[in-house]
Design brief:
64% helix, 6% strand, alpha/beta, D-Maltodextrin-Binding Protein, domain 2, 2 domains, 359 residues, 4 strands
Length: 359
């Protein structure tokens, strides 16, 4: 006669509850999961809110005065007047984007740019060339031009630094919770013989893993909501489709958490104690924090590194969440990134299944 398998719901909820309590009592969890991302958001959230400023030094004279009047009307352009020698020094030290001065020939205007700032130099050259062209047309008296430019404004929004940075902080918090907390939590339970005592009861191994996972799901949900709330309330972070965008962020965060937990289980299987967990988590976590698009775009890395960085688990997550937050796409439209995350999760869980030990 078969005996009925004991109900696993009670043990599952108990393990999740005590796992949650353990995380909330852990200072490292609170710091790296909540305080650390918020510190970075508040420290860098105001950067780039008005776009990059270009400062042009102008040596005052009759030739540059009319051009100055046109350039000074352009948004995000700062004008600094002064004598040519002082302006050249500031250009050489990187404090100015360019200097406008008299040319060698009569009627000529000279633009001085720095070789160290090619991108800004090209922008300034385009702006000044346009202003000079307008002045030449006005002086020539031409009114009916063969080609005219018509400008039409369309609806849009400015891409601010917070739009890039905040999604990266969500990825940071999710990866830290999934890997560090999972590895340290299970090692602690093994070292204190808690797992051994649990196995003396009818509780199944899967119930233990699900309970631990549920505790981390709750923490990850709280992290995501706190970070998004800080962005919306303090920095006017835009949820393009409102609640639908927020739900997509939450779902992606949970998918990322469950996928990244495989790495935590793998480390918990390989590590022998808490001291050996630290270097293993650092090997997996910190290179991704630094290079996978958390703090700065992957495009700013050397070209030789980009193919390798783009296939990191956190790089897939960051790319997906930024598409959701900045482009307003849904989860089905970030399928390539989700596929990358899932492939990494399969690798991690297979590795964990071969290394994980309950004692």
């Amino acid at each position: 006669m078969k005996t009925k398998s004991p109900n696993q719901i009670g043990p599952l909820l108990a393990i999740a509850y005590y796992g949650l309590r353990a995380q909330l009592r852990n200072r490292a969890t609170l710091f790296f999961g909540f305080v650390f991302p918020l510190m970075f958001i508040f420290a860098f959230g105001f950067f780039g809110s008005n776009g990059q400023k270009i400062t042009i030094g102008i040596a005052q004279n009759e030739k540059t005065e009319a051009i100055y009047q046109d350039i000074s009307k352009i948004e995000n352009i700062n004008i600094q007047k002064g004598n040519l020698a002082d302006l050249k020094k500031e250009l050489a030290s990187g404090k100015l984007s360019a200097v406008l001065a008299n040319g060698d020939d009569q009627g000529e205007v000279k633009l001085l740019v720095s070789q160290a700032s090619e991108n800004q130099s090209q922008v300034v050259q385009s702006i000044v060339s346009g202003a000079i062209a307008q002045q030449n047309l006005a002086l020539s008296g031409l009114k009916d031009l063969p080609i005219n430019l018509e400008v039409e404004k369309v609806a849009g929004r400015a891409f601010r630094f917070i739009d890039f940075f905040l999604p990266g902080m969500i990825g940071f918090a999710i990866l830290a919770t999934a890997v560090n907390n999972t590895a340290f939590g299970l090692i602690f339970l093994k070292k204190t013989l808690v797992l051994k005592r649990i196995f003396a009861t009818p509780t199944k191994a899967l119930t233990i893993l699900l309970g631990q996972g549920l505790a981390r799901v709750i923490v990850a949900l709280a992290q995501t909501l706190v970070i998004v709330a800080a962005g919306v309330l303090v920095f006017d972070f835009t949820l393009i489709h409102g609640l639908l965008t927020l739900l997509s962020i939450i779902l992606l965060s949970l998918i990322g958490l469950l996928a990244f937990m495989g790495f935590g289980l793998f480390i918990a299987g390989v590590a022998t104690d808490e001291n050996s967990v630290v270097p293993l988590t650092n090997i997996i976590v910190f290179p991704q924090f630094l290079m996978a698009g958390t703090f700065f775009p992957i495009e700013s890395l050397p070209e030789v590194l980009r193919p390798f960085v783009n296939i990191l688990p956190l790089a897939f997550f960051n790319a997906a969440i930024r598409k959701i937050t900045t482009e307003g796409v849904s989860l089905d439209q970030v399928f390539p990134q989700l596929l990358g995350i899932m492939l990494w999760s399969i690798i991690a869980y297979i590795a964990a299944s071969r290394t994980f030990k309950w004692e």
